[in-house]
Amino acid sequence: MSSTAAECCTTACPPTHGTFCWHEIATTDPAKAIAFYSALAGWKAIGCPNSAEYTEWEVGGNRIGGIRKVGEGDPTPPHWTQYIATDDIAATCTAATANGGCVLCGPNEMEGVGKFACVKDAAGAVVMLFQGGCGGDRQPCEGSFCWNELMVHDVDAAKKFWTKVIGWDFSDNHMGSAGTYTIFRLGGSDQHDKASGVCGCMKITPEMGPLPPHWLSYIWTNDINASTAKVTALGGKVVVPVMPIPGIGQFSVFQDTVGAHAALYQPATQPKECCCGEGGCGG
Question: How many domains does the chain have?
Answer without folding.
Answer: 2
